Amino acid sequence: GAGGGGSAPANDGSLPPARTDDVDWASVEFRWADGHYLSQIPRNEAASFVFVGLVSHDDFVPPEHQEAVSKKIAALNCVPVFPASAKLAHTFYYDFCKLRLWPLLHYLPGRDGANETWDWQTYVDINNLFVPVCQRLYEERGDVVAVWIHNYHLMLLPQALRAAVPDAIVGFFL
To answer: For residue range 14-34, what is the model confidence (pLDDT) as tens digits?
Structure first.
């Protein structure tokens, strides 16, 4: 496992499991999505990680189904983070991350969505949703040795997590 045998939460904007169909949330099932970049981790090594992220950038899990979805996705070593609304998730991923941050980080001046709404607060809010989830994993599990934060979607998380869990080992990959 990571860091000598312990589990390590791996954070990204989305989780590797995908819905198996478009049925309602009460009966939805999940499978490991082969196209997700985290699916490249060999299954025997992936078992030493806990993945924390949004269930999807496109789906909103209603509050009455969040507990059931959490239990089903836990079987895949995943802990979901639930935005308060579909609009919040959409604004975070598509309007801010894809239209603002992606062009800026890929040297595409003039293609940064200058006519789009700059929703900085949504970006902050979604990043902050990850903090209590990761903090809870540190407190409840004795084997969490590091938090690996992946990609520009969560650039604010390292500092916020450090404030909440000062002794956390935090890695960030952009």
So the answer is: 676 666 666 677 777 777 766
Could you report the per-residue pLDDT of 71-105, keeping only the tens digit for each? 988 888 888 999 998 888 888 888 888 888 888 88
CA distance 168 to 148: 11
Q: What is the distance between the alpha carbons of residues 10 and 17, in angstroms, rounded to a whole number? A: 13
pTM of the shown model: 0.81
Answer for the pair 150, 13: CB distance below 8 angstroms, yes or no: no
Alpha helices (H) in the chain, listed in sequence order: 43-46, 63-74, 86-90, 102-105, 120-140, 157-164
Measure the CA–CA gap between 72 and 75, rounded to whole angstroms. Answer: 6
Q: For tokens 């994993």, what's the residue?
A: 137
